[in-house]
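haha ok so turns out i had the wrong file open the whole time. this is the CORRECT one, sorry everyone. sequence first:
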Amino acid sequence: MVATTNASSKPSPSAIRGSSTMFHRWAAAAAALLLVINPVSSQVSKEQCDDLYAADATVSSGCNKTACELKGYCNIHSSTYLEGKCCVHAGVNVNFLAFEEAPEWGPRLAEFKKCTGANVLLTYVEGGEDNMAKALLEDVGSNDDPNSGQGIYDAYVVQGPWIPAAHLGLKNLNDLIKAFQDIIRFDDINSASRSAVTYGGSIRALPVDSDNIAAAYRHDLLNKYQKWYQDTFNEPLLPPNTIEEMVTISERISGQDHDGDGEPDWGFCLTPQTNYFQAFLAPIFTVNQKDASGSTGQNIFFDTDTFEPLIHNPGFKKAVELYWRYILASNCQTQTKEGVKCDRKSAFPTGKCFGVISMPGTMNNLLKEGGKYAPPPENRQDQYLEEGQYFGRRIVFPGSTEVLDWGAKGYPLMKCTDKTCPNARTIEGKVINFSPFFSEGGEALAINGKQSKETAVNAAWDLMTWLSTLEVNLLPLAGTYRRSQTTPEAVEALAKAWNNTVMADDLNAVLVEYFKEPSDGGNPTQDFFVVGFSDYNEALDTSLHKEFLLASTDTEYGLFNFADPSKSIKVGTPEFEERYATFIEKLQQRYDEVNSRMTGGALQQLYNWREALDMEPKKTMQEICSDLLAAGDHAAFDRLECNKEVDLGDLCQYMKEEVEAYQPGACAGPNNNAKIIAAVFGSVIGAILIGGLAYLTYRRYQSYLRIRKAHDQLMEATINESIRALHQLDYPLHLVRGDEFVSEGKLVRHEILRNTHKLTVLDSLADVDAFIAAGKHIVFFSHQWTSFTVPDPSNNQYEAMRVSLRELAKKNGWDENLNDVFVWVDYSCIPQANPSTQNLAIRSLAAYASSATYFIIVAPDTKHADLDDNCDITSYQLRMWCRAEQVCHSMRNGTEGMYLALGGGGDLVPVNTDFFQESLHVFEGQLTCCRLEHKGMSACDRQSLVVPLLGLYGELYRAAVDGVKGGDAESLSSVKAFLDEIQKHQDSVFPPTFQRVMWRKNKKVTEEVMLFGDLIERMKHRIDHGQGFSYEEDAAGTASTKSNDGSSSFIRHGASDFLRHGSTIRHGSMAKSSNVQVETAGGSY
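then structure:
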């Protein structure tokens, strides 16, 4: 159902911080903001609404607030949560990482943007769900390393098993959910899904789905075999209530000819997976997972006192036996024999399955008329259906009449009674324990709580909250997950959407049982939500399926007879017992191996598992170990390696008897003679150590001085190089005359223009200054490539460039023939054929950008030719080199000559004066080299920008210092604005270090690499003390000096009166650094 509460008065997520700390991101651009367009106010009537966007009325970063309010863009789908939030997130980017495509994402994100102005950039992990856990951990970082994580994304689609490994990096939502409880209605979400996103009492994600396992049977076949079954077995054929009944029916039905083709068909079908086996375990193991005091510790995986795997008990063996019998009567008897995957998705459409077990999403496609995996009418026996009946019927996963006795040693099986099974149901005289297994917990939405900016966090939270108020059929990746979604009204809406009342009623009947709270008799089983989930799962899958049940009888402990599946090793035979024992032994070994690979071993995993189950009372690892000694469980104490965690001597103070029972003599003190000997020996050794320590300290101090001197020399050399780089081009500046640029009709390759003599070449920065002084105008076009091979296959960007160039000429009153206007654009002005000269030109990009009189960002909405991605201003702003070009121009010339060209017939728009604030964060941008983890590269592109940006900063800082000394501080207000912004975020704008991922000898290595270090402070110190911010320029080229005393103004070419200092023009230039692959805004060269 839909919440109707207006949340506009709620506090923002950034104001509800809890214990989380928000950091500025260093090495990513997932929260990059769009350029802010100057708003234009106008009066708009309702009749003019349709033209509001074109008129740019009250537009902020592309969000039209007037249109939003008049047209009610924030009041959609009967939800009022976004009411009053028009353009509240205008210009904010939220990078969202997901693993499974869903058609609902497109319209929902478009609606959210139309209302709030936020741009949610959805990225799918390559490899889908199988790679999402790794991608999440790599991006948000691990719990044991606060500096880890790439921080590219702000929000994620997650599943419960992935949360524990990264939970400290995901935002704690407790306070937010409490503040927004009347909207979120967290308690309305089923208890299993709530548990899946809760770790150690902290909620780390918001569920939007529920993954559980149910069963289904074919009603047409049940009717067909009804009389035969009654006659043969003297009992009616009914939908199964217990696992034993389901297996028995499957065995009896297997071999019958369902479709009349003369071939024997199957009972219930499946895909052999660990989660379906665990569904067999759940009703036997989970008798009462939660009581009034909280979690009881009952589970299907590991003991919560010892972390011994729960495989050494008769309940586990019973589940294996039933599961094996089920497999032998299923599609596996044919598909496995034939060497193909035993798969419910390929088996069920054939019409040869009597029933199936599956997860909810796939189950819909198995049962729905026309579903992806549903049997078509010709493969069904619909002639046996009565009026109003439907062929596919979903049911609660069957239960068990026998359960574990958790209070007895070894956990023996016991019969279910009203007393022993408090949540059981009595059906036809049988007391049956049901416990639905919620495999993986379903999808949920989480926020990066470690690296994301507050603006992105706020927007992400509004998106998540809004989605939680929508009907389930509107949500991406969602199935029914709330109790309120099981009301008659909700079922009716679902039946209408599916055009199938029977399916809707069946699903509702299942979920009403599954979603019961523990206080109302609910008894769900939780999946294994701990670090290493996939490793434990793989251990079980390998031992159970690959080496035991579906392995050949010719192997060590395989049961399957490939020649004749009917002769496979049966339950109850001596051979089965022998091979089962080997299976348990191998599984135990694999679990032990997984424990040994986990940080902290089995003891840490036990602590993690108790946290995941939210067990009370909370225990530290020391308390876990001391409790084992108190209980006399010495084997578990040793297996958990508790000696590494506790000091037996300390335990002697309050549990001497237990410690002595474990290790006799552990609490006895040494005799006096031993003490004397130890004291004398210790004194001698101590004297030797002190002398040696003094010598080592001296040597280390000398080494420190040498390292310090080398560091100082490197820093000073870097500063000198940055000053030199301001005055030299590593490669001449190539330009295309304006009239020739617009007449070409497209972007033309550099070599073609060169060979047809259509390039103007300026060999030095002195020539650039003279060129501009002669009345020429240089327009720098900054854009991104929309193909891997050519820059602009659609010609959209070129058209935006051509239109903006003519409009700029018109604004400035230039000759409309464009003879005095010259264009720089990468494809035409950087060599494309010769890698060596191309690299030299790329190194000069900073100088090119800073030398231009005008800078135009070209970013019309365009589809990438080789990817299914949209290239626009948002994707442009995510690129580090795009930001670098902007900063190199704006730090030199201010923002007055900077424009935005978005195409589509829109005007050439000046950027706001505070535009530089976002662009300054160059190193938060994305880089291809980092995405490729620097394979085959010796350095990161970030390192290549240190020298030019350091030099530009030095120039800017000296302008401020000289202005103050010269009494001209007021005229340098723009410079001061730059410096103030840098000062506030210095470690973000000029990161001292960064985390670089490299590959060495086929091994992935993450290392902290110096970027700016203390270079900024050194540069400021040098300028403050007048220590040589100068460079002897080559006399060649056109002189640009107007005085010799260094105090008067110089020939300048910026678009505004931004810098007026020094005696020579100071230009940016890429340093001649190591030979690395460099990526530009246009692409990788």
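Residues 672-725 form the longest helix (54 residues).
again sry for the mixup
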